[in-house]
Design a protein that fits this description.
This protein is mainly α. About 45% of the residues lie in helices and about 10% in strands. The protein has 6 helices and 6 strands. α1 runs antiparallel to α2.
Length: about 170
């Protein structure tokens, strides 16, 4: 897997994540719109788009702002955290505008690759696990029966008995 830490490009050059259609079994991972170029011709690739509920994303951003380090000097970072905390989660979440992320998804869904994009979501992971796994197996050319046993401990109903899962709240 190659995490895309720079803008995507189909040309090999300095300062970009080179998307190599001849690389074979490589997964390029884009965590957000800042490194994605919706104008690229990606017809040589299989595309998986992960849709995240806007409410869930904003909620997660609130906790991220309070807990994760950033590049600011410590006193500036602490002041930003104090403002977020004073704002409270409801006001913070209602004030978030994540439109750029959803504009990117829309361009992917409505663009020339639209029909070829396989979409996943957290909702599928929790509520339609088999449907999501079937779709991902299709993308990677695997039969669901090939991965069923491996995924048994990853199923939502198995989380409480799986020591490899991170649990919070005393679970």
């Amino acid at each position: 897997m190659h995490a895309a830490a720079a803008p995507a490009s189909l040309e090999k050059r300095e300062g970009v994540t080179f998307l190599d259609p001849t690389a074979g079994e490589v997964l390029y991972w884009f965590r957000g719109p800042r490194n994605w170029d919706p104008t690229l011709d990606l017809s040589a690739f299989r595309i998986i788009g992960h849709f995240r509920d806007p409410r869930d994303l904003a909620y997660n951003q609130y906790w991220w702002a309070l807990q994760h380090p950033n590049d600011d000097p410590p006193e500036v970072a602490e002041e930003k955290r104090r403002k977020v905390l004073e704002m409270g989660i409801d006001r913070y979440v209602l004030g978030r505008n994540n439109a750029s992320i959803y504009k990117l998804m829309r361009s992917l869904a409505d663009g020339p690759m639209g029909e070829g994009v396989t979409w996943t979501s957290y909702n599928q992971l929790v509520s339609a696990f088999d449907y999501m796994m079937d779709n991902l197996c299709r993308v990677f050319g695997r039969a669901p029966s090939e991965v069923a046993e491996v995924l048994r401990s990853e199923r939502p109903e198995a989380v409480t008995g799986n020591d490899r899962w991170l649990k919070g709240g005393g679970a």
